[in-house]
Design a protein that fits this description.
One of its GO terms (molecular function) is methylated-DNA-[protein]-cysteine S-methyltransferase activity. It catalyses: a 4-O-methyl-thymidine in DNA + L-cysteinyl-[protein] = a thymidine in DNA + S-methyl-L-cysteinyl-[protein]; a 6-O-methyl-2'-deoxyguanosine in DNA + L-cysteinyl-[protein] = S-methyl-L-cysteinyl-[protein] + a 2'-deoxyguanosine in DNA. The chain is of the alpha/beta class. It folds into 5 domains: 60 residues, 3-Layer(aba) Sandwich (DNA Methylphosphotriester Repair Domain), CATH 3.40.10; 48 residues; 44 residues, no CATH class; 56 residues, Double Stranded RNA Binding Domain, CATH 3.30.160.70; 85 residues, Arc Repressor Mutant, subunit A. The protein is 45% helix and 13% strand. The protein is built from 15 helices and 10 strands. Strand 6 and strand 7 form a beta hairpin. It is flat.
């Protein structure tokens, strides 16, 4: 049974997440559409809701030519074209230019560039660079030198590698982080177990879980051959601030952070840090803020290793549901409930 009020809200918001969940039809035009249809919004009194395109057609309505509700939507067609563009970039040497890629895909260069960045968070050139860097990361551990790894990955030399912003230099990454010293501590908290790790630059990981051994294994996986040292005493101040924020969300921890990620991930994480405690944003709102795509934002949120300090729990689905969360929906609900309660106490 369709909830008419919720369906109408999705139509007003042109919520693409609701495409496939229902169809709306307009009596004055005789047309049925997807919730995300970009056409002019109809009057509420003229709108009816149907579970699928077949039901709308059976009721005498015809499909909208703009949003193609009976087949792939324009957005889905663009998704497929961007996937094809990624495959061409990955399998061509040298990678095609934007103009060459657009000609192969069948879009204008400007249209392809916008669609590509919206769905991946990168330009086609940035995608090729990211793939080349990923190849470099695979080559570094077994290469005889950084130069050998760079040449195998398609670089002409090593100069550009050392000009890139990164937490570790290429030489350190060739040794899989060997020589980097991280301190960590695992303590019980209201959400189960909490692991906090810090480098010389600041807190580099804050992880939640049910099992201390599993948290330590995740830290070891993230930082490969780095030296890990248990330091409950030395990290006491950082832990006290984090635990205080869990108990009183308005007391935000003020800690130096060693945030590691791609340029796009860091852009998303900076946007997360701007969401005040007690408030939420949906993925579409966050994507619009940084001129990206909700799916790209969701992937960046899932890669965040510093939750609470980089609050990805404050991002929800367009329909108001909690959506996914790396450390479990139950923890996300507790965090948001605590922040809302704290905001209410502040107003009293």
């Amino acid at each position: 049974m369709l909830d008419a009020d919720r369906c109408w809200q999705a139509v007003c918001e042109r919520d693409a997440a609701q495409d496939g969940q229902f169809i709306f039809a307009v009596r004055s035009t005789g047309i049925y559409c997807r919730p995300s249809c970009p056409a002019r919004r109809p009057k509420r009194d003229n709108v009816s809701f149907h579970p699928d395109a077949a039901s709308a057609a059976a009721a005498g309505f015809r499909p909208c030519k703009r949003c193609s509700p009976h087949g792939q939507s324009p957005a889905e067609n663009l998704d497929a074209l961007v996937i094809a563009a990624c495959e061409l970039l990955d399998n061509s040497e040298p990678p095609p230019t934007l103009e060459q890629l657009a000609a192969r895909i069948g879009l204008s260069a400007s249209h392809l560039a916008r669609a590509f960045k919206a769905r991946t968070g990168l330009t086609p050139k940035g995608w090729s660079e990211a793939q080349r860097r990923a190849c470099l990361e695979q080559q570094l551990p077994q290469a005889g030198s950084v130069l050998d790894a760079a040449l195998c990955a398609g670089y002409s030399g090593t100069r550009g590698l050392y000009q890139q912003l990164a937490a570790l230099s290429p030489a350190q990454r060739r040794k899989q982080g060997a020589g980097e010293r991280l301190r960590y501590s695992i303590v019980p908290c209201p959400l189960g177990q909490l692991l906090l790790a810090s480098s010389v630059k600041g807190v580099c990981a804050l992880l939640f879980g049910d099992d201390a051994d599993a948290l330590l294994a995740e830290l070891q996986h993230r930082f490969a051959a780095a030296e890990l040292h248990l330091d409950d005493l030395g990290l006491g101040n950082e832990l006290r601030q984090v635990l205080a924020q869990l108990n009183e969300p308005q007391r935000a921890a003020q800690l130096p952070l060693d945030i590691r990620g791609t340029a796009f991930q860091q852009q998303v994480w900076r946007a997360l840090q701007q969401i005040p405690a007690g408030q939420t944003r949906n993925y579409a709102e966050l994507a619009a803020k940084i001129d990206s795509h909700p799916r790209a934002v969701a992937r960046a949120c899932a890669s965040n290793a510093l939750d609470l300090l980089v609050p990805c729990h404050r991002v929800i689905a367009s329909n108001g549901s909690l959506s996914g969360y790396r450390w479990g929906i139950a923890r996300k609900a507790v965090l948001l409930e605590g922040e809302h309660a704290g905001l209410g106490r502040e107003k009293l």
